[in-house]
Design a protein that fits this description.
By secondary structure, the chain is of the alpha/beta class. Helix content is 38%, strand content 14%. The strands form two sheets. A six-stranded parallel beta sheet has the order 5-4-3-6-7-8, sandwiched between helices. Strand 3, helix 2 and strand 4 form a beta-alpha-beta unit.
Length: 232
């Protein structure tokens, strides 16, 4: 498909610049056209009654849990460093290595960790709306350099601050509300900062504004601009 395509739309910058040549043998630079958010589903106004404004703080993670998306030592350090804060994990556990899966599942036995299993896409918004800080726990290695998560925009649309592992530069324009970390110590430091900012009403509004700039409507406009420029 890549070899026969006139245009390659790539959801991450490194997919566009490196991956196509390195792994597909396509001698053409792709066009960066990143993931997006459907605001109609991730609209904060629909979940304001669920959003936590008082009481205990909550860290949350949603998505597949495997060798790319989960750095096990990082997760172990997080739950140990915040023993009085609840961690909620939603999604499918699909580690390919049995040892990694067993090691990760042991984390769920901790008192401050809850595993929710798979939550349907039509219901996950309500769960995320109850979190204070949303986590992106990717392991830093070759494959994660090409992974661009659309959930980062979904979290922002619900007014959530994000703490993530730094794997590429795709989220640099969102750095005010997404704290990317170069290692475990940096991640723990950013997690503390994020907790302090999580319920700031002005910051919540800013996150929603950032998400609107990354909405599916905006991506559709960009798609038409690409077509117009390539097929005049």
């Amino acid at each position: 498909m890549a070899l026969s395509s006139q245009i390659l739309l790539c959801t991450s910058k490194l997919l566009a610049s490196d991956y196509c040549r390195k792994y597909l043998g396509v001698d053409v630079e792709g066009i960066y056209w990143p993931n997006t958010v459907d605001i109609s589903r991730w609209d904060l106004r629909n979940f304001k009654n669920n959003a936590i404004q008082s009481g205990d703080y909550v860290f949350g993670y949603a998505g597949n849990m495997n060798e790319i998306t989960i750095d096990i030592p990082l997760v172990e350090a997080l739950v140990a460093s915040f023993p009085d804060t609840e961690f909620r994990f939603a999604g499918k556990i699909n580690f390919s290595k049995k040892n990694d899966k067993e090691k990760f599942v042991k984390i769920f036995a901790r008192e401050n960790v809850t595993y929710l299993g798979m939550i349907p896409y039509t219901e996950i918004q309500r769960e995320v709306s109850k979190w204070d800080v949303c986590l992106m726990l990717d392991k830093q290695y070759e494959l994660s350099r090409y992974v661009h998560h659309n959930k980062v925009y979904q979290y922002l649309a619900l007014g959530k601050v994000v703490v993530a592992t730094k794997t590429h530069n795709d989220y640099d324009s969102l750095s005010e509300e997404i704290f990317e970390s170069s290692g475990i110590d940096d991640f723990l430091s950013n997690a503390r900062i994020a907790l302090g900012l999580a319920r700031d009403v002005n910051r919540v509004s800013k996150r929603v504004e950032l998400a609107m700039l990354e909405s599916s409507e905006e991506r559709a406009k960009k798609f038409m601009e690409i077509l117009d420029s390539k097929f005049q």
